[in-house]
Design a protein that fits this description.
Helix content: 40-55%
Largest sheet: 8 strands, mixed
CATH superfamily of the largest domain: Phosphoenolpyruvate-binding domains
CATH topology of the largest domain: TIM Barrel
Bound molecules: phosphoenolpyruvate, magnesium ion
Strand content: 5-15%
Number of domains: 3
Number of strands: 16
């Protein structure tokens, strides 16, 4: 039966495919397709791991001390029995042989399916066996992680979803897959970046949560804040994601399917049309040259940035190099290498590297830190506050960035500053990093220093910032969060997260104006910069530099080409004094 779930649209486009449910705890399990002739080896890999776990459990059982409580013996019996479960085995085989999932993915998929069956059982005793079952699967997964895979590296993700518009509800292998999860951390999303999924749905998350930001950078349709989607959607259900409206349609009727297939083809044609603007300079009708830059998470993202026509990187979120590494942070050389690759990737265009911004919804180690989260993580030890609390780590990063600046144009951007004392300490540490490199005789280059304006307090003391920094970058995602006291990752208050609130617009305008008066560049690198519906307004507020996901650049460029800033300034002033600016902007 067809039903609809409403969430928040975070990434444009339409996706049609089969649902793959992934538990948050299994987001770090490898997901890739194998070749048909690898299926037997993959089934074998699983069998070897399962047999090893059987031996392990049997040994545990044999070694039980005579006075051990009898329950332990009974639990081990249950676990051994579950390992023999035919339904589990047949299910996993199905995912490997019919769908060509790698073994770990097949195992977790089947586990998700059987877990739901456990949940629906009448008998309380049987229902509780779900935990045993999950423990057994965990053991097998751990075993597989320890064993070396016969497939050394995951084969490249097979291109799925070509000709999606003509999709029929059949079982062909080339059906796109849509990932459905309760929650995914930004680090989990990173895992999926090179993956096989044609769309994402999560139960939780706000429009500018970092999970949504990474989904957007992957340029595939995504819906977050879809509440109970992971409960309502079943493994393998057909789903349609409407990335414009945030609507998810489960088990669509043939008519709906045809309609969305058409929409998908239209979207594709629009993209092709925009593609022709790639080499067109971003100049407004009245001759203003506008800088369109890219936001990236990894050095590899410079490829799409250049392909999308970016004139440089306006925001390299360096924290993604640090996440999900179980405490083994990248050392100076590893960081230097990553920054150097980003600089090389841009081929001489400037790269703005932001120093680490962890904390709040970007924990360093998702699974270990989430429970220990502080009550108000967004107001806690994040971004520059964390860096200043860890000066050795910060110095390491600063040295790596300065060294990368010897290989090409680099700007250094500092997040979440608010206090004069923080500015002072930061500048002293940059100096100390240079002195370290001098002592070691390592080459480093010049960097322009920039500050993010993303706390209202910073936007209210702009002369202080302009005195110390060469440029400013407005982080509207956080500026909105902190001005309006709305957690950007909380879907329950997402309707109040308003980029067009007059208070936000005034802070943005003041920052742009103060930068212009001081002759220092100001960029916007929050999600507002990549929303073509807001391009005219930002131009009217005086903005000349926009940094966004590479996939948004051409749509924003189109809006720039159609704009006349000489007329927009007066209009923007009327928007600014309106009680409800949205009514003027979205007309
Ligand atoms: C912002 O806050 O607008 C920003 C660009 O930084 P981040 O989204 O990484 O917090
Ligand atoms: Mg920010």
């Amino acid at each position: 039966m067809t039903f609809t779930i409403h969430g928040l649209a975070v990434s444009r486009g339409t996706a049609i495919g089969r649902a793959v449910l992934v538990a948050s705890s299994h987001a770090d399990v490898a997901h890739y397709f194998i070749k048909p002739d690898q299926a037997a080896a993959e089934v074998d890999r699983l069998r070897v791991a399962r047999n090893a776990v059987v031996v392990e459990l049997q040994r545990l059982q044999a070694d039980l001390p005579p006075d051990a409580p009898p329950e332990i013996d009974a639990v081990l019996d249950v676990h051994l029995m579950l390992l023999e479960d035919k339904e589990l085995e047949a299910g996993v085989r199905h995912w490997i042989e019919e769908r060509l999932y790698n073994a770990e993915w097949a195992l977790t998929t089947q586990m998700e399916q059987l877990s739901r069956q456990f949940d629906e059982m009448e008998d309380a005793y049987l229902r509780e066996r779900k935990a045993d079952f999950e423990q057994v699967v965990e053991r097998v997964l751990r075993q597989m992680k320890g064993a070396t895979s016969p497939i050394a590296a995951p084969p490249p993700a097979r291109k799925r979803g070509a000709a999606q518009g003509d999709l029929q509800l059949d079982d062909t292998l080339d059906v796109p897959l849509i990932l459905v999860a309760h929650d995914l951390s930004p680090a989990d999303m990173l895992q999926f970046k090179q993956s096989v999924f044609a769309g994402f749905i999560t139960d939780v998350g706000g429009k500018t949560s970092h999970t949504a930001i990474v989904a957007r950078s992957m340029d595939i349709p995504a819906v977050v804040g879809a509440r109970s989607a992971s409960q309502l959607v079943r493994q393998d259900d057909w789903v349609v994601i409407d990335g414009e409206t945030g609507v998810v349609i489960v088990s669509p009727s043939p008519i709906l399917l045809a309609e969305y297939g058409f929409k998908q083809r239209q979207g594709e044609l629009e993209r092709q049309r925009l593609g022709r603007l790639k080499n067109t300079p971003a100049i407004t009708l009245d001759g203003q040259r506008i800088e369109l830059l890219a936001n990236i998470e990894l050095p590899e993202d410079t490829g799409p940035a250049v392909a999308g026509g970016a004139m440089g990187v306006g925001l390299f979120r360096s924290e993604f190099l640090f996440m999900g590494r179980s405490g083994h942070l990248p050392d100076e050389n590893e960081q230097f290498d990553a920054y150097r690759r980003a600089v090389a990737g841009m081929g001489g265009l400037p790269v703005t590297i932001r120093t680490i911004d962890v904390g709040a919804d970007k924990p360093l180690n998702e699974h270990t830190e989430r429970d220990a989260a502080h009550l108000n993580p967004a107001l806690g030890l994040r971004a520059i506050r964390w860096s200043l609390a860890e000066p050795a780590m910060f110095l390491t990063q600063l040295r790596a960035i300065l060294r990368a600046a010897a290989t090409g144009p680099v700007q250094l951007l500092v997040p979440m500053l608010a206090h004069a004392s923080e500015i002072k300490q930061t500048l002293q540490l940059v100096q100390a990093a240079r002195a370290d490199l001098d002592r070691q005789g390592l080459p480093y280059g010049p960097v322009k220093l920039g500050a993010m304006i993303e706390i209202p307090a910073a936007a209210l003391v702009l002369p202080l910032f302009l005195k110390h920094f060469d440029f400013l970058s407005i982080g509207t995602n956080d500026l909105i969060q902190y001005t309006l006291a709305i957690d950007r990752a909380d879907e329950s208050v997402a309707h109040l997260y308003d980029p067009l609130h007059p208070a936000v617009l005034r802070l943005v305008r003041e920052t742009i104006a103060a930068g212009a008066a001081a002759g220092k560049p100001v960029c916007v690198c929050g999600e507002m910069a990549g929303d073509p519906a807001l391009t005219r307004l930002l131009l009217g507020l005086g903005l000349r530099s926009f940094s966004m996901h590479p996939s948004q650049i051409l749509a924003v460029k189109q809006a720039v080409l159609r704009s006349d800033t000489s007329k927009l300034q007066a209009w923007a002033e009327t928007v600014l004094v309106a009680d409800e600016p949205a009514t003027l902007v979205y007309t």
